[in-house]
Amino acid sequence: MELAAIILIIAVVIGAQALIFSKYSSKGIYYSASVNKTTVYEGDIIELSEVIENRRLFALPWIKTELSASKWLAFFKTDSAAQTEGGEHVFIPGIFSLSPKSRCTRVRRIKCIKRGVFSFDNTVITATDILGLVTRSQNVEVNITITVLPTALDSKGALLSLTEPIGETVVRRFVNEDPFIVSGAKEYTGREPLNRIHWKHTASKGTLYVCSNEYSTSNKTLVLMNMQRKSVYPITCVDFYDLEAFIKLSVKLVEDTLKNGGSAAFAASGGNGRCYADMINSEEQTLPLLKKLAELDSSCHTEFSDFLSAVNCTAFTDVIIISSYIDGAMKDFADELFRMGKNTVFFTDGNIEDAEGYNHIQVSRFAFKVNKEAHHEK
After folding, report:
1. pLDDT(18) > 80
2. 284 and 338 fall within a common domain
3. DSSP class per residue in 232-287
4. How far apart are CA 321 and CA 280, in angstroms?
5. Alpha-carbon distances of 4 from 1, 7, 8, 11, rounded to whole Å
6. CB 184 within 8 Å of CB 212
7. What CATH code is carried by the domain that includes residue 165?
8. In terms of domains, do 263 and 308 share one?
9. Residue 375 domain flag
10. Are the C-beta atoms of 144 and 159 separated by less than 8 Å?
11. d(C-alpha 237, C-alpha 277), whole Å
C-alpha cells in the first residue's frame, strides 16, 4: 500500500511538472541576438551575442537554440562543434540551462569569408522539462543583416601575366601646380604672390612661409566589368569564381587609380539593378561602390556589346575592361577609343591570344581562386 502511494505521489508530481511546463515554459523564455558590427570587410571577425532569459519561477533544465546562417559566415569551431549544413546555410546549435529568474549570454565569433549581404532571420528555440516528457518549440525573429564589403585582389591571390612592359609609367598631370591642393609650406622667396602666404606656419616660425601646392592629375579611369558568359544563349552570368575574382579586381583597379592621384568610375553589365559608381576622387568616396558590389547578385540579361554601345567615355582618359573573353565587339570598341586618343586595357582570365594583332590594346591575364567552402576557424 505504501509503495503504491509513493508511486502515485511520484506520478502526480511528474504529471504536475509536465502540465506546468507545457503551459508556461514557452511564455517565460525570451531570446535576443545582436552583432557588434553590421558593415565589415572580407576576412573581418565580428561577434554575435545571444541572450536567453528565463523569467519564470521554475527552472528550465534544457534549452536548445538553432541559429541559421550563411556558410560564408564561418563560426569558430569552439562555438559550432555540432553544426549541420543545409545547402547555402549552416545551423549553429546552442545548449542552455537556466535557473529561475536568470539569464545567460553567449558570445560567438564569426569570420566573414566572402562579400555579400547576409542575414539572421530567426532562431528556433526548443525547451524540454527535466524528464524529457514535454518539448516545446518556438521561432524567434532576429532580423540582423550584415554587409560584407569586398576587398581588393592581392598579389597572393592573383597570378598576373602582362603583355605590356612592366616598369615606370607616365602619369598625366598639368604643367602648373594646382592652387587648391595644399601639401604643406615652404620658405618665401619673394617670387610668390602675397595671397599664397601660409600665415599659421609664418607665425610659428617667425619668418615668411608660403603654401606649397601639388600637381593635379588629369587621369580619369573607367572600369567596366563584363558579367556575361561567353557564347551562351540565353545570356547568363559568368560562374561563381569569375564573378568574385572580377569584383575583387575591380576594387583593386579603382584603389590603385586613386593612390596614383587619378579619379575612377565603375560600371557592371549585370546584377540586381544597375551597378555603377560616378567619378570617385578619393578613397573615402569608395564606400558607396563597395556596398553596391557587396549587394551585386549573379544575374545578367544584357549583351555586353549593347552595354558598351551605351557607355559614354568622353570624360575619361583610360578605360579598363574586365572580362572572361575578348571578342570582335570589344576590339572595335578599343579601336574607337584609340581614335579618340584614349587608352584601353583588358584584364581577362581567358586567352590573351584573342587580342593578338592589336598593338594599341594592353592585355593582362589574371587568375584567382575563391574557396567555395567556408573553412571554420579553430
Report:
1. no
2. yes
3. -SS--B--HHHHHHHHHHHHHHHHHHHHTT-EEEEEES-TTTT-EEEEE-SGGGGH
4. 17
5. 5, 5, 6, 10
6. yes
7. 3.40.50.410
8. yes
9. no
10. no
11. 20
Range of the domain at 145: 28-149
Which cell goes with 39? 558593415
> Which stretches of 42-198 are assigned E, i.e. beta strand?
45-54, 60-70, 73-75, 84-86, 89-98, 102-112, 116-128, 135-149, 161-162, 182-187
Same domain as 134, residue 207: no
- Cα angle 347-353-354, degrees, rounded to a multiple of 5: 70
What are the b/e assignments for 179-202, b being 16+ CB within 10 Å?
A: eeeeeebeebeeeeeeebbbeebb
Same domain, 298 and 166: yes
Residues 263 and 236 in one domain: yes
pLDDT digits (tens, 9 = 90+) for 82-122: 455 556 778 888 888 888 888 889 898 999 989 999 988 78
Which residues is 84 bridged to in the sheet?
91
Question: How far is it, in rounded angstroms, from Cα 233 to Cα 230?
Answer: 9
Instruction: Retrieve residue 42's grid coordinates.
Output: 572580407
pLDDT at position 158 is 47
Q: Residue 72 is part of a domain; what is its CATH number?
A: 2.60.40.1530
372 lies in some domain: no
CA distances from 6 to 16, 109, 180, 333 (A): 15, 50, 93, 92
Banded model confidence at residue 160, pLDDT cuts 50, 70, 90: very low
Residues 240 and 201 in one domain: no
